[in-house]
Amino acid sequence: MNIVFMGTPDFAAVSLKKLIESGHNIDLVVTQPDRRKNRGKKIICSPVKELAIANEIPVIQPVKLRNDEEAKEKLRKAHEKADIGIVVAYGQILPKEVLEMPRKGYINVHASLLPKLRGASPIQTAILYGDDPTGISIMKLEEELDSGPVYSKVEVDIEGRTAGELESHLAEIGAELLVKTLSEFDDINPEVQNHSDATFCGIIKKQDGHIDFSKSAAEIERMCRAYDPWPGTFANIDDKTYKFWKFELADATKNSGCSLNSDNSSSDGAKPGEIVYVDDDSFVIACGSDGVERIRVLEIQAPGKRRMRTDEFLRGNKIIKGMRFDAKEA
Fold first, then answer.
1. Within the chain, how many helices (H) and strands (E) appear?
2. Domain limits at 23?
């Protein structure tokens, strides 16, 4: 097929690469403008732009497509030849006039099992709320957010992955499903979504990573995976912000290094966020609304330092039973 492709991050570049390798002709790539990094010292272009340039594909980068008449005119010309438009994590909402340009419309690779998790953060939100399995949906783009008929979908188990790991996995699966869907496109009768079953997810903000230790251990562990690599999860002791990169659930009722009968364990009445056990390899924090649940820290990052295993961290940092993490503004 002749295609106009819109996308920006690595997740999108995987699909673009697969389309090129599968013999599709990419007439035009649309991606977000270049960004300045490291306090404006270096200009960084998107992974999709890098791939397009390497394959000598024309690229346009409108700041806001809706208001850019020159970009829309280039799209009109591209769609005189292009059969279809494909959007993968582009980062802008397409206006109706653009959606109507290609003969076969625009389709989108979305990282959830629609109608669940329409919106900007389906991967993180699926992990955060334990919405397993998740998956990939290939849908027709319409004006309403992620509401179009679905051409194909595939389920994917989360399997304890972080958001970064799951994104990479879904990118590969989404690219494969996209190519398969295009090969069968004219024979597919897309399924209309049940809008009454729709759920939504918003844009993630840095402050979303603050840990509330009154939440259950399972919620905190999922939160840690959902916000890895960004924004990370964090909490404070004595105005110092520590990032947590890996937790595991600990059973406070068994002899697992944090037994309530251990001399080094919590006594009754531990508060959420309180350190209740420390050894050479790790430490354990009380959590849950009444402080009776336990979560073990396996990877942590001190202020101004790199992330590291907890045993390595403890060799250079003093952590004492009874200290308490308090989530507050970083």
1. 8, 17
2. 2-201
CATH number at residue 214: 3.10.25.10
Instruction: Please report, in angstroms and rounded to a whole number, the separation of the first and last CA atoms in the chain.
Output: 49
pLDDT single digits (tens) 17-52: 999 999 999 999 999 999 987 766 789 999 999 999
Q: How far is CA 219 from CA 202, 237, 287, in A?
A: 18, 21, 10
Q: Exposed/middle/buried for 208, CB within 10 Å: 0-12, 13-18, 19+?
A: middle
Residue at 108 is within a domain: yes
Location of structure tokens 């200009």 = 43
Q: 184-231: per-residue pLDDT in tens? A: 999 999 999 999 999 999 999 999 999 999 999 999 999 999 999 999
Q: DSSP for 113-150?
A: -TTTTEES-HHHHHHHTT--SEEEEEEE--SSTT-SPE
- Give me the pLDDT at residue 83, please: 94
Please tell me whether residues 181 and 311 are part of one structural domain.
no
In this structure, the answer to whether residues 178 and 210 fall within a common structural domain is no
Chain centre to alpha carbon of residue 86: 20
